[in-house]
Amino acid sequence: MFVLSNFLHAVAMVINMVLEALKWLVIIRALLSWVNPDPYNPIVQFIERATEPVLAPFRRIVPSHSLGIDLAPFFAVLFIYFLQLFLIPTLLGFAARLG
């Protein structure tokens, strides 16, 4: 069972790193929206492509046209933070019980 325990621990750590990177990409995208960067810049295009699947559901829930400000990045970061506080410790606890 220690193999499954180690596997779950590794999966939890990888998920945590991916969530952390995604959180920073969402924050960077929100900051970039303030300065109006070149849309043809490959880095800007990568950030937009990487974060749009995360931001789109929040944009459907909280429309920005009525408020004048896009709150989707705020709620996306909160959701990612929630996943880091709930999902990662749950996986690590489960791995510890198996090991």
> Kindly state the mean pLDDT as a whole number?
93
Largest sheet: none
Number of H- or I-type helical stretches: 3
Written as H for each helix and E for each strand, in order along the chain, the element string is: HHH
**How much helicity do the residues have?**
over 70%
Contiguous low-pLDDT stretches (5 residues minimum) are none
Task: Report strand %.
Answer: under 5%
Based on CA atoms alone, the radius of gyration comes out at 17 Å
Which structural class matches the secondary elements? mainly alpha
Q: How would the global form be characterised?
A: elongated
Query: In total, how many domains does the architecture comprise?
Result: 1
Which oligomerization state do the chains in this entry correspond to? single chain
Q: Between the first and last Cα atoms, what is the distance in angstroms?
A: 6 Å
Query: How many β-strand runs?
Result: 0
Note down, in words, how this protein is organized.
- The protein has about 100 residues and is mainly alpha-helical.
- It has one domain.
- Helix content is about 80%, strand content about 0%.
- It has helices spanning about 1-35, 40-60, 70-99.
- Helix 1 (about 1-35) packs across helix 2, helix 1 (about 1-35) runs antiparallel to helix 3 (about 70-99) and helix 2 crosses helix 3.
- The protein is elongated, with a radius of gyration of 17 Å.
- The protein starts with a helix and ends with a helix.
What's the quick description here?
By secondary structure, this protein is an all-alpha fold. The protein has helices spanning 2-35, 42-61, 72-98.
